Amino acid sequence: MKILSMIRKDLKILLSDKKALMIILLMPILLMTILSFALKGLFADDWEAGKVNIAVVKRYDAAGDEKRFQDALHNGLLARGMGQDAAEKLASAGKDTDPERIFFEEFLGSEEVSDILNYRVESEEKARALLESGEVSAIVILPEYYLYDMKVNLLTPFRNEVDISILTNPEATVNGQIVRSVIQAYSDSMSSAVIGKNALIESVMANDLGIGSFEGMETVMTGIMDALEAVKVEVQDIPLEGTKPISSADYYAAAMLTMFILFAAGHGGRMLLEEKENFTYQRMMAAGTSKLGILAGKFLVVFFIALLQIMVMTVFSRFALKVVWGDPIPVVLVGFTATLAVAGIGAAVAAATYRAGNYKMANIFETGVIQTMALLGGSFFPIDILPAAFQKLSVLSLNGIALKAYQKTMMGYGMEAVLGYAGILTGIGLVFAIIAVFILQGKGGAAHAGSYQTETAKA
Amino acid sequence: MLKVENLRKSFGTIKAVDGISFEVKKGEVFGLLGPNGAGKSTTISMISTLFPPSGGVILFEGRNILEDPKSIQRKLGVVPQDIALYPTLSGYENLSFWGNMYGLNGGELKRRIGEVAEIIGLNGRIRDRVDKYSGGMKRRLNIGAALLHMPELLIMDEPTVGIDPQSRSHILNTVLELNRQGMTIIYTSHYMEEVEYLCSRICIMDQGKIIASGSKEELVEMIGGKTEIELSLEAMSDEVLEILKDCKGIDSSEQKEDHILIRCENADLILADIITKVTAGGYHLKSVGVKKPNLETVFLHLTGKALRD
């Protein structure tokens, strides 16, 4: 009953504190709204709305490349290396092989890829302007002699290096990664096809099987098509690892929620010392309330503040930002365990601050620890853009763990996917609660309740 | 009711309370008088079970409160020197919270809040936020929070510090009324006139020790205190001292720079006679002052310093 009174009283005090309410409730709502719109380009929600726009730049000269290839085939090194007849036969077998058609129509124009990418062919200058203005998320540059080199690769035993360049908009890193992945998949598949074709040609020539064997080129070409099928499969896997992509609103709703519940711990971290300085702590002790009872009260107050924050932010983001949090049961589990963890940390900070007799500890927590955890945990921006070493440190952040769990629920995963995270969060809460008890019960420092008149104690 | 024996408390090398003993009887107002830093608040903090003493025993109704703190906590009300309230809550919410802390709930709590608000004179403002109260109102609410559970023993630590005369008067009358209703009260203060006014027995503390105890009369008697009469004349003369020799009841008289100082047992009995004889001798009086011996005199006599030093 006493604990309930303490919780009720602290919540009333909080509700009468406009500054605290602003930090705890209003700021996260504002920030999640601003960030979800401002950093929309970082996220995959573009493909939900209208796919990733790219520009393709042709640095090659199609007619020139064709002429160059024919010259090489009849008069140049290719003819000398393979023999005129073999070269003619190869040219005939692969006369329908058009790298431009393969890239634009069969690859970018395929149903699967066109569901993800919208492409337009532009001059390099125009394409760069579009990239800077954000109208396209990436530029794919097909290099000089692209058609010539690709024909050599596809139709002769020789291999010429083909470097397809991709320029991305720094504000659309996720979209850039998607484009890179798609083009890389294309490139890998083409390489496989070329290697297979080369193996065939080399084998025919080495064993002197006769140029009739080049009839097998059709099989090679079928292999190329098969490889393109393989590209399609990979492309389907690119949209993150789950079943539903996460939008910027989804991400920042969870990111702000998990960061700002830490401020509940910061707020709670000051409460014990404030009570002592107010002499209400002593008065409660004189009324027969134990230290542990008072600490338990603070633990639960932080718990309920964090729970209130989660409820407000979840409801707001659901209706105002159309955030889809996922299956309610795992979402509630993550929220509940995250509040436990926050309450544990808040109690530990409160005990340490009380013990120290000043607010340095609480200040360090609010200005240093929370900001560091926010950075490492991905509350400011997705941690996959950080160096790998920093990404590993995210396990040290409570918000990072909770954010990962929320991302799972948002992507459509069920209870199994979040149980591990929930366990870690519960563990954090319990460990820090135990630490808080030890700190408060320990001897020395300013552990005792203190006199009703501090001046006397110093006399 | 409460017995303190050889109570000690040290903070490092500083002895805040140094072997004090006293007894508080049921139904009395017991005064702890001493200057700031005398050890009064430390003493009541130990009686309130806020922290243990370094040595000694505190018995409440025969039970050692160190072994059984619960025995005193529910029967004790403490009014701390500092305002121990939540300023952003209303007076009602504060009383409600502190009532809960003492185990009061529901209808009983509401009834007691109403009664206490009446006692402390805050009926009309009880729903206002405490940070809108004057200093005196906060002090009264601070007292009210200790009365909700109707304690048998009420400890009041400097409850009138820094407030207006009207609120002080209200508080002193409240103390007397509570005592009249049967509440035992320990009242600590460095205002000797409050202690004189309220307390039937008094302990004077200084530097962690009790330097004297007893009723006011006993304390004055202990130092052999005399009433002093100061006569200021328009024209001073040695002849006045001769006239005063004819007055009965004067123990001594002497001429100071600008007045004549007379010491006696009871000024009320002899003052009229002195004035009559001095004026009959042709001397015009400018002023007459009477200084009765009080606790200030006692403290000054025992320590060589004033209470407010």
Poorly predicted runs of chain B are none
Estimate the helix proportion of chain A, in percent. Answer: over 70%
Shape estimate of chain A:
elongated
Strand order of the largest sheet of chain A: 2-1-3-4
Radius of gyration of chain B, whole Å? 24 Å
| Percent in strands of chain B | 25-35%
Structural class determined from secondary elements of chain B: alpha/beta
How many structural domains does the protein architecture of chain B include? 2
Mean pLDDT of chain A: 79
For the record, give the distance between the C-alpha atoms at the N and C termini of chain A, rounded to a whole number: 38 Å
Count the DSSP helices of chain A: 21
Report on this model:
The complex is a heterodimer of chains A (459) and B (309). By secondary structure, chain A is mainly alpha-helical. In chain A, 70% of the residues lie in helices and 5% in strands. Chain A has helices spanning 2-15, 18-38, 45-49, 62-74, 77-82, 84-93, 99-108, 111-114, 124-133, 146-155, 173-206, 217-237, 248-277, 280-286, 291-320, 328-356, 360-377, 388-393, 398-410, 415-441, 454-458, and strands at 52-58, 117-121, 138-142, 165-168. In chain A, strands 2-1-3-4 form a 4-stranded mixed sheet, sandwiched between helices. Chain A is elongated and about 105 Å long. In chain A, 46% of the residues are buried. Chain B has 2 domains: 2-221, 3-Layer(aba) Sandwich (Rossmann fold); 226-292, Alpha-Beta Plaits, CATH 3.30.70.100. Chain B is built from 11 helices and 14 strands. In chain B, the strands form 3 sheets. A 6-stranded mixed sheet of chain B has the order 6-7-8-3-9-10, with helices on both faces. Chain B has a 4-stranded antiparallel sheet with strand order 2-1-4-5, covered by helices on one side. Chain B has a 4-stranded antiparallel sheet with strand order 12-13-11-14, with helices on one face. In chain B, strand 9 (201-206) and strand 10 form a beta hairpin. In chain B, helix 5 packs parallel to helix 6. Chain A binds chain B through residues 1-2, 5, 9, 12-13, 16-17, 278-280, 282-289, 448-453, 455-459, and chain B through 11, 14, 16, 36-37, 39-42, 44-45, 48-51, 69-70, 73-74, 76, 78, 80-86, 88-89, 93, 97-98, 100-103, 105, 129, 145, 157-158.
